[in-house]
Amino acid sequence: MTDAPGLLISAPASGTGKTTVMLGLLRALAQDGLTVQAFKSGPDYIDPAFHRAASGRMSFNIDTWTMGAGLLGAIAAQATGADICIAEGSMGLYDSVATRGQSGFGASAETAALMGWPVVLVVDVSGQAQSAAAVTLGFKLYNPDLPFAGVILNRVASARHERLARLGMEKAGLTVFGALPRQGDLTLPERHLGLVQAAEHPDLVWLPGGYPELHAGRLAAAQTFAKGLREHARTRPVHGECGGYMALGQALIDKEGNRHRMAGLLGLVSSYETRKFHLGYRQATLRAAMAGHAKGARLRGHEFHYSTIIEQPDTPLADVADADGVPVPETGSCRGTVTGTFFHLVTAEQD
């Protein structure tokens, strides 16, 4: 789908160091004078910001569960003018949901196959040597039709350890592109990026998310911000996603149990003191219209947060379910011109 050649950097599982490898590759190629187009397989919105910092060029998400062919093609076209594309996978190479979405199941392997990008697998060899080759060979043989370029060994303990791991890969017929030492300071900082600023247009204020639980006191004191939102909402739409939804609510309880007044445009009371992990694809059918989408529209998105709902008294915005169609209680809210959801909208479904 792109004219530029490319690779997809993946791994057997999360936490193996693929983002570190990805960023190193992006910076090295950019410093060599190449125009590098980065992509992120899946809905993760944090890693693309790191990609941009490393490459100097905007990075884009490619997600086969939420996106149809038209949107995937438009995103692939962002590589126009690039010398090479480097994409980062999410979780393990073949990890996905069980129910097919608009173009697939959301696996990084699907992205690689769709775009025609060979896979480079980042393998954490700590605690093993030749055995790592058996695991890697399984990933190559699991889908023989998937182009598999080779591996990068990560967290190598010594020269002897590297030699043994390479021997195993050689025996399995696998190409080793390089090895990275086990190095405690070769890690990324905490990826908690702070509150994202609002996207503001003449007829719409859209709060796309962030981390209001880290800034609850400052938000409560930001009366000019709250006044501006209320004034806008008198005649024009305001929408908040995840952290933006929380900021539009009545109150937010921080991790110490302190209650902070939010903008009050919706009745939502959320708590970071009572934490629960929410992660996954979301499909929603709107019960009421929201900015850019009519009542009855079917939307696709992704939810990722730790906050819980204490009160959600407003009219539900949508019927929301996970990727398998199981309903979830985070329906979102609407009140007048104001709407909010815990899921981040990716696109409307294509008929």
Automatic annotation (TrEMBL):
InterPro entries: CbiA/CobB_synth, Class_I_gatase-like, CobQ/CobB/MinD/ParA_Nub-bd_dom, GATase_3, P-loop_NTPase. Pathway: Cofactor biosynthesis; adenosylcobalamin biosynthesis. The keyword Nucleotide-binding applies. Belongs to the CobB/CobQ family. CobQ subfamily. Its EC number is 6.3.5.9. GO terms for molecular function: ATP binding; cobyrinic acid a,c-diamide synthase activity; hydrogenobyrinic acid a,c-diamide synthase (glutamine-hydrolysing) activity. Its cofactor is Mg(2+). Keywords: ATP-binding, Cobalamin biosynthesis, Glutamine amidotransferase, Ligase, Magnesium, Nucleotide-binding. Pfam families: CbiA (PF01656), GATase_3 (PF07685). This is Hydrogenobyrinate a,c-diamide synthase. NCBIfam families: PRK01077.1. The keyword Ligase applies. One of its GO terms (biological process) is cobalamin biosynthetic process. Residues 198-349 form the CobB/CobQ-like glutamine amidotransferase domain. It comes from Pseudosulfitobacter pseudonitzschiae. PROSITE patterns: GATASE_COBBQ (PS51274). Residues 9-193 form the CobQ/CobB/MinD/ParA nucleotide binding domain.
